[in-house]
Amino acid sequence: xxxxxxxxxxxxxxxxxxxxxxxxxxxxxxxxxxxxxxxxxxxxxxxxxxxxxxxxxxxxxxxxxxxxxxxxxxxxxxxxxxxxxxxxxxxxxxxxxxxxxxxxxxxxxxxxxxxxxxxxxxxxxxxxxxxxxxxxxxxxxxxxxxxxxxxxxxxxxxxxxxxxxxxxxxxxxxxxxxxxxxxxxxxxxxxxxxxxxxxxxxxxxxxxxxxxxxxxxxxxxxxxxxxxxxxxxxxxxxxxxxxxxxxxxxxxxxxxxxxxxxxxxxxxxxxxxxxxxxxxxxxxxxxxxxxxxxxxxxxxxxxxxxxxxxxxxxx
Amino acid sequence: xxxxxxxxxxxxxxxxxxxxxxxxxxxxxxxxxxxxxxxxxxxxxxxxxxxxxxxxxxxxxxxxxxxxxxxxxxxxxxxxxxxxxxxxxxxxxxxxxxxxxxxxxxxxxxxxxxxxxxxxxxxxxxxxxxxxxxxxxxxxxxxxxxxxxxxxxxxxxxxxxxxxxxxxxxxxxxxxxxxxxxxxxxxxxxxxxxxxxxxxxxxxxxxxxxxxxxxxxxxxxxxxxxxxxxxxxxxxxxxxxxxxxxxxxxxxxxxxxxxxxxxxx
Lengths: 315, 265
Ligand SMILES: Nc1ncnc2c1ncn2[C@@H]1O[C@H](COP(=O)(O)OP(=O)(O)O)[C@@H](O)[C@H]1O
Ligand SMILES: [Mg+2]
Hints:
Chain A is an all-alpha fold. Helices cover 70% and strands 2% of the residues of chain A.
């Protein structure tokens, strides 16, 4: 009986989970740019996510228009990425370490921006774009609708961007550094650019989450990298076989985040200690990251060599 | 077309692994020269090409391409003058990108890359024609990922990419060494054809003495960071493998002459 009554709570919690997932999905798409396209593990995101939230909320409290505040969060994210990018390329610090350094520095900066460890914003007094208040409302300001639209616009924008000469050269940089340089591509500049764009999305996502939950918190980005990776991995596992087009791959990442938050919601509703959540997430991501390695090590199938006379195709 | 003047290069300076690789290297190439480069393992052949391409900075000396001093230019800026094919077939192409995307990247070597489309419709058609010249059926696989191609196909594609907008200089670093003999021959024949048709100034490193003799109008032998033998024209045409071995013995000493690289067929 008790089980049924707990299970009955799940549908009511779903809209909220979806909204959170969609918002984090934007962050995960940013992470996809660095992790999958540039093949750089960028840990800046834990910091830049909170920076986006902090900048947006503080500006709105100072009377800024919500769209301008979002734009500034976007730009603040780019600056975070610029720092990591320069530490990595110009100063030769390994990408992971460069990201950790920026992330740590951002903790202080975020505290300075907010002025304390968290700051709330009143949905009745400020013109927020998204709020959990409206998540079950059938109205145009339902955050589910808003975030879906924002996600589609961003995916369209970056689908276009990665098809341009500049976008292609960023993809090439991630795919093959030596080739890229030999073809005249400034790989250092591209890495910086890619990390900047990624963190711009991450900060935008942070800005949306801060509005949604009604406050910015210096700790709101903690573990963002793991949530982002989990979203990418889930998205690829579930939709990888059917979503081949680049835009669809980005959508899959967003849906991966939604699935992640639905699972989290279900797990919490059936009574898992919420404090164990990060442990669980980290374990799941670790397992998925380990699978390709273990597969190739222990389950490698012998490669069949097909030989045909004189055919370069089979060389 | 190319002037390497008094170039020195030492790796790992000040450590136990300090290695003087190029010692006062001088080389002048005329426009249209097709030069084959041979020499034992570790002679500094790849390092010479890498210096020209700007992979590492020189310690001292200068490098000039077609009258332009490129000594201080970073690798990606020098790329506007240079086409390169590497020993490892994986190095010259982007595995996760399509064949046509790889070609489009190469077509923009040395040009600014802005927000215009990365590959236009007209380009696509021209690539289809270009790929036909390879006779590998790649013209029907424009949108296949390069990672699906064989080593030989990738090397042929890299060759096309390196030469598609007539570089002032073509650098081939043992670009057939990783291929099986039949494929190697195909790629080598194709290279010679492209070089001759476009009159490309070319440096081609090979570990095969017969190829070094057969191709090009000039041959240089490197040993210990220096050019120890340099023949061209008629004299090169008359060259035999025995001559080369003899030269190598004189310059490098008897024991090194048994180096497997020089003795390979
Ligand atoms: N990046 C590097 N760092 C240290 N040593 C190097 C580097 N590149 C080449 N060397 C050394 O320089 C010598 C010449 O190498 P290389 O030019 O590759 O010879 P090869 O004539 O066989 O192409 C070798 O002893 C090699 O170990
Ligand atoms: Mg070499």
